[in-house]
Each structure stands twice: as structure tokens, then as C-alpha cells.
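[scheduler] slot 2 assigned
[scheduler] job type: sequence-to-structure, two independent chains
[scheduler] chain ordering preserved from manifest
[runner] begin chain α
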Amino acid sequence: MRKSQRIRQHYQPRIDTGRENYDVLDWSSAEAQQARFAVLVDNVPLDGRTLLDVGCGLGDLWAYLKGRAISVDYCGVDLLPEMTASAAAGNPDARFVCGDIFDPDGCAMGIGGNFDVVFCSGMLNLDLGNNAKFLPKALRRMLELSQEHMVVNLLHSRSKMRYQHCAYYDPEIVMKILEPMGCQLRLIDDYLPNDFTVICGTIGF
């Protein structure tokens, strides 16, 4: 099954079912979702920057940024048109694009050039059957699109409770993948027991 088909199969039935946003996106709670957003906001300069939210879902990051009075030029991108349509309807003051940034023919024309910050929250946590192979490609592509920082959070291999449909990662392996890509690295893994974030900077922290 292709990556796009697996993602659609998992998320499409969850949309427009009366679920809370975090549940549609398959987060354990709204608090856990926002804890991941807080790592980005508390560790990367965002004011006045351009920000690409990869796998933006229903636009919850944009709402979080507004709630913290952080001014960014925001663009959310998601593979599912139902997600971006719902995100745009709920957040008419933000830009949302439907497409696949990892497919050369799928999205580049829709999002424009590079961004100061590229953020990916949870998009790589669905088990696609080839996550280990896809991860280096995904990280490199997001680094190519970022001018200052690329930030990604992933499910931690130390997680005691695992779900069959999820992929889990060893932070040391992720760091080793990124080391040859020429960026400064910072690992943060003390905010949730089952999660970690890697910040890749082309400028200093």
C-alpha cells in the first residue's frame, strides 16, 4: 500500500465525526498535543519568521501560536484535502495547502519557496510499513525547505505502551541520520514520556 493510501485510510474516517481535533489527529490528549507545540515555541525564535507546518491537520498549531501572541507568516500543508478544507474553514486568517512536500510533483508549486522554520509534529508517527527507509528522505527534504530551523517530534522507542498502527524511533539513530546533513542538533526528550523532539539549526540556538 502506498504511503498516501495508508494515511488516507487511517485519517479520513476520523474527520467530521464530532471528535475533538486532537482525537481526529490521533493524539492521546489536547495537553500532549500542546506540549509538543510548546517545545517549538519555547526553543526556536518564531516572531516575524515564515513557518511551514508539515502535516498541519486541522490547523491547531496556528491557533496555539495566536493564543501565545506569536506573529508568524504561517503556511500549513497536509496530504488530505478534507484536513486542509476543515483547517481553512476554522482558521480563515491562515494559509493552508493540500499536497505532499515529499513528492516532487505533488506540492512544490503550492507552498512557494523556503521557510525560516519548518515544523513537523507527529506526521511521521503513523506506521507506513517503510518508516525507517522514509525517515532520512523526509528529514532531508524538510531541511532543504528550512532556512533557520527544522523541528520534528517523534514517538520514543522507550514508550511502554505501543500501538500497532504507530512507528517508534530511537533518538540516537535519528541524530546519526541528521549528523551528516550539516546542521546543529539539539535533542529534547523531557517533556513527555513517549515523545522526543529534534531541533536542527542552520543558525545557532
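[runner] end chain α
[runner] begin chain β
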Amino acid sequence: MMRSTAIFLFICGFLVGTVAAGEGRSIGNFDSEQGAFKLVVLIEGLDHPWGLTFLADGRMLVTERSGRLRLIDNGRLDPEPIQGLPAVSSYGQGGLLDVILHPDFERNRLVYLSYAAAGAGGFGTEVARGRLIEHRLEEVEVIFRALPKFNGGRHFGSRLVFDNDGLLFISLGDRGHRPNGQDLSTHPGSIIRVRDDGSVPADNPFVGKSGARPEVFTYGNRNVQGMTIQPGTGRIWAHEHGPQGGDEVNIVTAGTNYGWPSITYGRNYGIGTKIGEGTQKPGMAQPVLQWTPSIAPSGMTFYHGNRFPKWNGNLFVGSLKFEYIARLELDGERVVHQEKLIEGALGRIRDLRQGPDGFIYILSDEGDGVIARLEPVEP
């Protein structure tokens, strides 16, 4: 049922595009090693947009970190936000973060949101779901709360991905408290795996382990703001922010310890001193790729469409710090080549998604943020 629905969504989205190719405000043409493309701004006036998802009828939902969920309909921003959201705390790096649809959305209308929320002890990442009925979320329920909550406004994560079995992955940050990374009794500093209702799969790696949170799927994660599923393999890939270097790309596998803060390629901010025990340690995974200096990665998508056939199988990552898109060529689980795209042309890149129409959509993290799109230049 879930795979059939995904195919239906792809076909409908391809046939009913939100904005036809060639429409919007063109920023200009750019050259890539694999051919020319243009950058087109489709929507302007968003308040620090964070996450984006596509409806089968061609509309889009986009989150604003300040706490609003916006609807893009027929190429225009609806002035009225979607109503019925849970209480969101726009605090520090937190706020309304990611948005995705249930794999069987056409039947159940379920939308999932990750966001920062206040509670006992401070603030933490939560995930809620609700049914999208016309212009409102109904029957909203919180299905996951990252515990314990902490004061401070750093490192909330958070991306949401459903795998091919319909299980929900939730990426978190360590909330700026380094020991969380190696502490299985806390959710922060990990990637979570739950069922679509928030219940725990029996085969999660730490189910039944004394002192461990059963929702934890991986740990040793600093602040994961990019996560996506790889077409064909079904693997979940993720990246996370390092401290003054040491941003990582990883493949998400059950029970893996990615090392933070025991090992890292990053350094302490400002003073540049070593963190932890070095860059390697037995029992702790090495990244597929690390960036030093840090690019401040956010957003992540594989390309698997017919608009850019030479990009098929490439992994795309946004850079907040250097304002570019990193195009990564892979050989199996190795990154063998990198290219920088649209450097400085759009501002801070917050999210990347491949649309059902085969274009690549981009969110810029600005007070006057935009939705833009990469389109091929016809020869």
C-alpha cells in the first residue's frame, strides 16, 4: 500500500506541477560540470523557512521557524497560515522545523511536524501529527518528546524521514549538552526510530537495555539537520554539524555510535583546542565524509529524476555558512567527487528537496526567505 501510494504521489505531482517550468523570477544561468542549469525564485516573503513537502495535487507545505505552517497553492503563498498546530517555542535555534506526509497520506491525511516545545526542565524537540482537513490540522497529537528537556537554545535537530517499511526516523541534536551524545538514557544526541504512531519497534537496538531509551536508533550525534532516504537501497543517510570543523555525512545503521563528543574532527570554537580523545576510537564509526572547515550543512536529498539525468544518484547538501549546494558523487558508500553549486546566489541554504516534477527545490534561511528551484537549461 505504501509503495503504491508513493507511485501515485509521484505521478500526480509530475502531472500537476505547482509552478510550471520557466515561471518565477530567474536569478540567472549557472554552469555545472554536468551541464547548465538556471536558478528560479518561486516564492518570496517567508520567515526563515525550514522544511518543505509536496502534496499530490501540486500544492506545497512549508514551515517557518517562527511557528507558522504555510500553504503554496498554484504558485502563490496563501496569506493565511494553516491552523491547529501544536504549541511551538520559537527559541534560539528552535521553532517549527520539519514537515513530512505519512506514506499513506491520500487515505489518512496525516501530516507530521517536528518543533521545539517548552516543558519541565526547559525546551526540547517534539513531533506531532494531525489530519490536514481543508486549511486546518485536526486531531493533533504529540507522538514523541525528546527527554529530558534542557535550557538553552542550541541543537534541536531536526529532520523527519519515513523508511520503506513505514517507520519514522527523527533526527535530534545534543541540545548543546555534550554528554548527551554518549548517554543512552537521554534522547538528545541521537537519531530516533518509531512507528507512525510513536510506538517503539520491537527490533530497535536498545529495547530492553537497562538505562537506555528504547526509541534511540543511533547515538553519538551532535546536531543532525539533514536526513534522507537513498532510492534503490532504502538506506537512510544523515549529516550533522561539527564544532568549528568536522561536519559529518553518515549512513544511519542500527545501534551505531558516531562518536560525539568522544571523537570528532572538529575543534573548540574560538580557541581551536582538541575535543575528546581524537578522531578515531574502536567501536565508534568513521564518517562517510567530513568537512573541515565546517560548511554548516542543512538539508539533504538524493536526486533520482529525469530533469537532470547526469545527476542521478548524486547526493545534494545545503551549506548555511558558505551559501552553496554541495553536489556529491558516490561510488557505493564512498564520496568520490564534490562540486559547489550557486555559491552566494541565494543566501543561507536551509533545505533541499527533490520535487515530484523532477526539479530540485531550495529553501533559503532568511527573514525574507524564498523557495527557489533548479531547472535545466535546454541546449
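[runner] end chain β
[qc] chain β: The first helix runs from residue 2 to 15.
[scheduler] slot 2 released
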